[in-house]
Amino acid sequence: MLNTLSGRFLILTTVFVMLAEVLIFVPSIARFREDFLLDRLERAQIASLALLADDMLADELEAELLANAGVYNVVLRRDEVRQLMLASPIPGQISDTFDLRRASPWVLIRDAVKQFFTPGNEIVRVIGEPVRGAGLLIEVTMETEPLRAAMFDYGVRIFWLSLVISVITAFLLFLAVRAFLVRPIKGVVGYMQRYARAPEDARGIIQPRAGVTELREAEEALQLLQTELTHALKQRERLAQLGSAVAKVSHDLRNILTSAQLFTDRIEASEDPLVRRMAPKLVSSITRAVSLCESTLAFGRAEEPAPTLTMVRLRDVAQDVLASESLALDSSDIEFVNEVPDEMVVRADPEQLFRVIMNLVRNARQALEVTNIPGQITVAAEDQETAWCIEVRDTGQGLPPKAQQNLFTPFQGGVRKGGAGLGLAIASELVRGHGGELLLKRTGPEGTTFEIRLPKGDWTF
Fold first, then answer.
1. What is the pLDDT of residues 208-238, one digit of tens each?
2. What fold, for 310-455?
3. What CA–CA distance (Å, rounded) separates 204 from 21?
4. Distance between alpha carbon 445 and the CA centroid of its chain, in Å?
5. What is the CATH number of domain 213-299?
6. Selected residue with higher pLDDT from 261 and 406
7. Which residues, 6 or more positions from 413, have their beta carbon under 8 angstroms from its beta carbon?
8. Where does the record place a coiled coil (predicted)?
9. At a CB cut-off of 8 Å and minimum separation 6, what does 360 contact?
């Protein structure tokens, strides 16, 4: 119970109520002491009035009046004359004098605390004003032990009363916390547990019902989160099913297109001028279709294998890519430039790094070929303090805004007509496998630059 929210509220409430009662107790005990002394003064005044009524009181009656008043003697001042009205032997010296006529609240509290914690019986003088204007002042001499005993008795009663009030208040607060906080919180937790068991089931989404503003805001935030997550899970499931279907279709279609490629060799040998003119375009179309199927199958794998990191001479990798792409050129209007420093080595998987740079260079080549404008493709690199930065630049016309929005999204980031947009998605995935990132650094009429950042981490040479 102590570890629950309501249990801790119960304990804290009891403690705070007791603390508040302690703060109230100090002035209340001072007030009790003042009332006690004023009562003694009033009794002494009544006894002195009895003496004024009859000057010849017997000693026994005088002693009885003093005992009833709880004092040793009474001095009454009337008409500027101090008169010793009643007197009896004082068993000791007067240790202190308290004047209640001009005592401030702080003085009364100080004297009460001192009296409460001072053991023993003392003789004190108390001065006050007579009630009903029966004189200028009244002064009595009395013992402190009865006063201290009465203060202790009052304090014990206050303590038990405070304890009862604290327990009742804490219990009521305990019930209120359970009703207004604990129960709604348990309801939210129950919804979260039920949703965790079946996140795809929309029936597990919480329905806000709390009356407390803060709890209702929490329920609404949880409802929004669960709704978006359920939608994302359903979309992911549909994409997985679609990917599986596309992979199967691409596999069979690749086999069919591969067979068609074999027939194109014989078609190219035809003597018909029309066939000889159309055959290269047919071969090119089939080749692109096969390439698309292979890219789709490659992306449809569960995941790329983890990179095998080793130290790679980057200029050699870039040169292999540029040499491969130069063989695929339809014209000589595109120039390939390798600006990677000879001595530069990077920590990467050589095969995966080749694929990343190949995708970027191929996209740049195809973009330049579409424009039929002479251009240049450059691979450059820089060894920075925390990362190796590889840039692939072209002098094309830049990427259209639509392509920039979904640049690294599969099947949506294609730039050229007929492309599937898988090249950049695969390249980005491979770079992330190295702990790096693939960025579009700049694009526009002056050209496009992609940057590959490979972190150095804790690698030492």
1. 877 767 778 887 888 888 888 877 777 777 6
2. Heat Shock Protein 90 (3.30.565)
3. 48
4. 45
5. 1.10.287
6. 406
7. 403, 406, 407, 421, 424, 425
8. 215-242
9. 392, 424, 427, 450, 452
